[in-house]
Each structure stands twice: as C-alpha cells, then as structure tokens.
Design brief:
By secondary structure, this protein is α+β, with helices and mostly antiparallel strands. It folds into three domains: 240 residues, no CATH class; 82 residues, Transcriptional regulatory protein pf0864 domain like (Alpha-Beta Plaits); 65 residues, Ubiquitin-like (UB roll) (Roll). The chain contains 13 helices and 21 strands. The protein starts with 5 loop residues before the first strand and ends with a strand.
C-alpha cells in the first residue's frame, strides 16, 4: 500500500503562491525542481530564488519570482495551451491545469463571463504561472514514488481592509477569493491586510484532500514560507508540516469544552415528507461531495400517518457550515437538528494477503491485538477472481481466511 506523506498546511496567516513556494523550499524541495517545471511552461522568462528571512522574529524562507514587467494579459485558453505543450510530469500538469481552471471559473463567475474567455492579469501573468506550476511541481516531488501526498489544510485566514487590483479598490477578501473558498472553512482577520490571494486560494482548494486541524501524524519536517510584507505584530508566514499518518488509539470523544470536543463531528438530522423520492440519491451524493463523512436515510411514519424519511448526515466540524448549506439547497427542509457526537473505534490498519498469487488489500480491525473483522477490498477481489477464473465469493472467503490466521495480513 502507499506510504505517501501527509502534508498539513497551516493557513492561519493566509496563503499565497509565493508563500507556498517558500514553505516547500523550507521543507527541502530543491528550488531547481520547481524552477525547471516553470521553465518548461515559460522558457527563459522566469527566475526563482530563495532566501532566508525573518517575519515577526521567526525564521522563514522567502521565494522570489523574477519576471519582466511588460507581460501580456492572457486568457485561460492561452494558459491551457502553454500547459498542454510543456514537457511536464503528468501529475504536475494535471494539478496545474486544475488550479488555473478553478481560477478561471471563479473569475468568470465574478465577472459574469465564460471561464475560457476570462482575460485578466492575475491568471495570465508569468508570476502566477510560476507560483502555480512551481508549487504543483514541489508537491509532486514530495510525494516521490509513493504517489501524491495527502494534503490537509487548516481554516484559512483572509485578512481585512481593502486591496488595490486591476479592477480598482476592493474589500478584503476580494470577490474571487470568496468564490474560490465557497464551502471550505475560512475567517476574517486577524489583521487588516489581504492575507489570502486568489492564487493561494486556488492552490489550497485544488491540493486539499481535507480541511481542519493537524491530523494525527509523525512530523518529519516543517517548512515556513514568508510573504513579501513584515507587518508589526503579525508573522506573515505559511507553515507546511510533512510526515506520515499514524493510527490513533480507540477513544470516546467527550462532549464538553475540551480540545477533543472541538474536533468532534456533528450529526445533522431532519424529517422530510414532501421530497420526490427519486431525488434522494442525488442529495446523498451532493452531501458526500461537500465533505460529509456519511449520509443516510431512514423511513419513518409521521403524524397523521404520513410516510417520510429522516435524513442523517455525519459532518467533520470544520465543514459543518458548507454541508448544512447543501442540505438546505438540495432538500425541502426548513430546519435541522444538530449535535456533536462521540465515537469509539477499533484499531484499524491496512495490509494485504496473497490468494493464489493475487495480491488483495485487506482492512483489519483489532481489539487488544485480536483481529475481530477483516474486510478485503472488493475491487481487488474482483480483479483476482477474473485473473483466476474463480467466483468472487470464493476469492473473498479465501482472503478473509488468510487475514484472520495468526499473524494476519502483511501490513503495508
């Protein structure tokens, strides 16, 4: 199984492309790796170099992006062609394409035009190309041969006040940042400066697999990327921690005022008796896409004998507002019950067994070291059954038997 690293991005002081470049350089990603990728998109037009700086007394890495001043404005179509024609690693190209696509869609929504025709400095400028392609190359480099790292991002600080743009003076956060961060945790402040740029928001929302506090992980390295300004009393930095995930011991999340309570998920519930039943599969899919951990329906009988359903949704605390909004958007309910819930879970691990030469991934659950449950990955079982010419039920049974033998599956 993959041993790709876990990255936690601390965006409590905002995020920008150059801050992410600096944090990646601080983690040990060679600047040359990021510069080489940028040069493949814009040959000879951009220079990257890093230097050690201090922000509010803390050591950080500042990544400078050098470009000529007289750059043409480009559309998303122009940038898409540049990416398609560049000799980039496919993962880098795909990530960069997604970032620019998000930027173009956000600006298109803000300005009321087709994203393909968005024509503005922020997307087309070489410094944005350098930020996006350089960061994507750095993230792919950190994953190495184990695949793309898992990225978890904290709630994003947006700042306050106003900012000057090509469209005049705008309030912070600017419209494109608001559009890009729809449905993810963010907050205003802590200072009256623009802390999160559109490029930073597009990078975070593309890279993030999850949102919230630092996950359980063994931290190997910390990279601190500096922004261009050093305001009094505020460390203008973005931190990236990298390491590998660790299994947490089973525990019951207490409900109270402790840190564990703050991280406990929410259970949302509502009774609905006036929604076309054919819509429910789409509702469930929309809630899962919005970040719900699980969602399910229970048939009920309401007053006066009316048939109905109870919709239940389990939501990580940082994603509560976005998922709650999706419930209102996709159903006819006008109110929700919500409560924090605790969880007790067995120790779980992933491993693999070999059935007649076919490798099958297995998730095992243990209590005091004893395997109580073993669930083979069905996709692996189906593939093995096809390769062996045997029924999937037989392959499944063989995999479970191997997983529950003394020693269990080989841990990945």
């Amino acid at each position: 199984m993959s041993r790709a690293p876990v990255l936690w991005v601390d965006a409590s002081s905002g995020a920008s492309g150059d801050m992410l470049l600096g944090a990646l350089a601080g983690l040990g990603v060679p600047v040359g790796v990021m510069a080489e990728a940028v040069d493949k998109v814009a040959p000879g037009q951009v220079e990257l170099h890093a230097e050690d700086v201090r922000r509010a007394g803390f050591a950080a890495t500042r990544c400078h992006v050098g470009v000529a001043d007289d750059q043409p404005h480009r559309t998303w179509r122009d940038v898409e062609l540049l990416l398609a024609g560049a000799g980039l690693h496919e993962d880098v190209r795909a990530l960069a394409h997604d970032v620019f696509s998000r930027l173009a869609e956000a600006e298109g929504a803000v300005h009321g035009c087709d994203p393909a025709d968005v024509h503005f400095h922020e997307v087309g400028a070489l410094d944005a190309i350098a930020d996006v392609v350089g960061v994507c190359a750095g993230v792919v480099h950190l994953g190495g041969h184990d695949g793309l790292p898992r990225v978890v991002v904290s709630a994003v600080a947006l700042g306050g006040g106003t900012v000057r743009s090509a469209h005049g003076t705008l309030g912070v956060p600017p419209p494109a940042v608001i559009e890009l961060l729809r449905g993810v945790p963010s907050y205003g402040g802590p200072v009256d400066l623009e802390l999160c740029t559109p490029t930073g928001a597009a990078l975070l929302t593309t890279l993030a697999d999850a949102w919230g506090p630092q996950p359980a992980m063994a931290v190997d390295r910390v990279g601190v990327g500096a922004g261009g300004r050093d305001p009094d009393g505020h460390a203008n930095v973005l931190r990236v921690l990298t390491g590998h995930g660790v299994e947490q011991s089973p525990s019951v999340e207490p409900v109270g005022t402790t840190g564990a309570e703050a991280a406990a998920p929410y259970l949302l519930e509502t009774n609905v008796d006036d929604l076309d039943p054919r819509l429910w599969p789409g509702v469930i899919s929309a809630l899962l896409d919005a970040g719900a951990s699980d969602a399910w329906l229970t048939p009920i009988l309401m007053k006066k004998g009316r048939p109905a359903h109870t919709l239940a949704v389990l939501v990580p605390a940082p994603l509560l507002e976005g998922v709650r909004r999706e419930v209102y958007r996709h159903t006819s309910t006008i109110g929700l019950r919500q409560q924090r819930v605790g969880k007790h879970a067995l120790d779980r691990s992933m491993g693999e067994v070999v059935v007649d030469g076919q490798r099958i991934a297995v998730k095992t659950a243990r209590l005091d070291g004893e395997v109580l449950n073993a669930q083979p990955e069905f996709e692996d079982v189906a593939a093995a059954a096809r390769a062996l010419g045997r029924p999937a039920t037989q392959v499944m049974a063989a995999a479970v038997a191997l997983a529950t033998e003394p020693g269990g599956p080989v841990t990945s």
